[in-house]
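## retry 2 of 3
previous attempt timed out at serialization; input unchanged, resubmitting
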Amino acid sequence: MILDSYTNILNDERIVLTLDAGGTNFVFSAVQGGKDIVEPVTFYSKGHNLELCMETIIKGFECVKEQLPSEPIAISFAFPGPADYKAGIIGRLPNLAAFNGEGVALGPMLEDRFRIPAFIANDGNLFAYGEAIAGTLPFINKLLGEHSVQKQYSNLLGVTLGTGFGAGFVVNNTLCDGDNSAGGEIWLTRNFKDPAMMAEGSVSIRAVRKTYASLAGEETMDLSPQYIYEIAMGLKPGNQKAAIQAFEDMASVVAESLCNAITMIDGIIVIGGGMSGAYSLFAPKIVEHMNGTIQNLDGEKLPRIVSKVYDLDDEPSLKKFLTYQSKEITVPFSNRTVPYISEKRIGICRSKLGTSKAISLGAYAIALQKLSQSAPMVKI
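## retry succeeded, writing output
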């Protein structure tokens, strides 16, 4: 079976068990037809003790299974890495100390226990896949069709800004997870502001807190990025200049990493994660940086990336993006003409589904795809 549209997922009656695995809590649910069908079950992860953690995962899925109207056909969820996701084996995890790097066969354990296939993936990959199937890509392609633009996008870079800096790629409508389950490790790109540091050193909840505290001269680092965002927007008391700078510093690092990634991928960019709520504050800085310049060996300034970047959540920018200027050029040795669009364009926007829903849909689609014997990957 080939899933060729979001409609197919919505009409699918098969049930898949899911898990939202955080460092503190595990949230278990079940998806049918692309929607959660049970009240989620939440348990403390007990990530300090491997046996207790494994028992918690089993108990969580059992509690959800008891609520189902029929038997589930698979388990599918995102789990932190590093991991051999294809084999379902988890490596050393910084936020779950029980996973000490010896390798934990989590997928095979669940298959033995529940007698159904278990699929585990990186959350960045599932986020990107969900947005490609049912969020950003269909949203943009529909708008292009409505504006009579003869162009459709099939590549997407999804990035998440939260506890860390994650990413996933969809290339030609196909999820690219890498030969070593290491696709989308954008957090390890070089930090634009501090080349000796990885990008995630400036792109995380902790980093925004630290930057604000340093600039504002405050000892506390307990303020949430949401609160710092509200300071920046003048909605809460605090050092507004420092709050704005904290997000702009993050934005410049995100932007340079996006430049490096999108140069290889050439597609739409969608941003999710907890800090995407501050999108309106940091997105203009990202777009400005990506539309900036870089020098060649002779000192000549060139565009930083080949394509021009448009903020699709900004109405004037979206209108420009949808107004493709084409011209008719003559075919050599002929009187025939063909349309030519010389400007290359990519768009950037905030998640159209919400991060959790996109990940859930991605997990559901991956399970259905992997159970299909007729296609190597879900087609969009």
